[in-house]
Amino acid sequence: MPTVLAVDREGNRICNEFHITSGNDGDFITPKTLIAGSYYYGILGKEQIQQVAENGFLSEVNFPSYFGQGGVPRNMPIPEVYDILEHAIEAGYVYKADTIEELAGKLSVDPAVLAGTVNRYNELCGAGEDKDQGKDNSYLIPIEEGPFYAVTGSVRPFSTGGALDVDTQLRVQKAGTDTPIPGLYAVGNDSMGGLLSGAKNYIGYGGAFQGWCITSGRMAGIYAGAYAAQEP
């Protein structure tokens, strides 16, 4: 949801929030969220929640790997958002408070820092131009009225797969052929050229590559060791 204000665990804004939108309109992940650590917070006020309840999301939420029923189209009112937030609060990953300072206390964040970040963001919203991060002004909704919410965002880096073609022994193949290059092996994300297409050169499930990294690394080690043992 690009209308949130994304802050790190110190209460500082970290990025153009449009780029952490899990939808066709967004880039899903940005290096700046990785710098924030394993999680960050999305700060919202009454205005953002009311927008979702009455008018829906301003951008489409449709990342197929996570939304098995087709995702959520833009501009579809979601009046249940209040109940959803209450359940999330009970689950412990959403926080609610009447003031930004109180919200900061629940996050163990310096109230002055978070309040300053929110005030600066509201200034940008009022000016209609995000000079700090470059977010499109259509997503600039100020955070002025409570209750205020902080939604815990989990950072999940996705990686590009594809790269080199390898054979069943993890030997890199010469370009455009099935001929392996003796002594040259590739593993992990560098060894999936034969498995993924240029149309979609990533797997949309977090952690999917980790198993292949372990398996391919072990296999390549075995074959590389056997190859080295044959060398004079």
Provide a compact summary of the structure:
By secondary structure, the protein is α+β, with helices and mostly antiparallel strands. The chain is built from six helices and six strands, in the order E-H-E-H-H-E-H-H-E-E-E-H.
Kindly report how far apart the N and C termini lie. 61 Å
Mean pLDDT: 84
Oligomer: single chain
Main sheet properties: 4 strands, antiparallel
For the largest beta sheet, what order do the strands appear in spatially?
Answer: 1-2-4-3
H-E string: EHEHHEHHEEEH
Portion of residues within helices:
25-40%
Class by alpha and beta content: alpha+beta
Query: Rg to the nearest angstrom?
Result: 23 Å
| Low-pLDDT stretches | 22-27
Strand content: 5-15%
Shape: elongated
Count the beta strands. Answer: 6
What's the tally of helices? 6
Write up what this structure looks like.
- This protein is α+β, with helices and mostly antiparallel strands and 232 residues long.
- Helix content is 31%, strand content 12%.
- The chain contains six helices and six strands; from the N terminus they run βαβααβααβββα.
- The chain has helices at 31-35, 46-55, 81-91, 100-106, 111-127, 208-230; strands at residues 5-7, 39-44, 94-97, 148-154, 171-173, 180-185.
- A four-stranded antiparallel β-sheet has the order 1-2-4-3. The protein has a two-stranded antiparallel ribbon with strand order 5-6.
- β5 and β6 form a beta hairpin.
- α4 (100-106) crosses α5 (111-127).
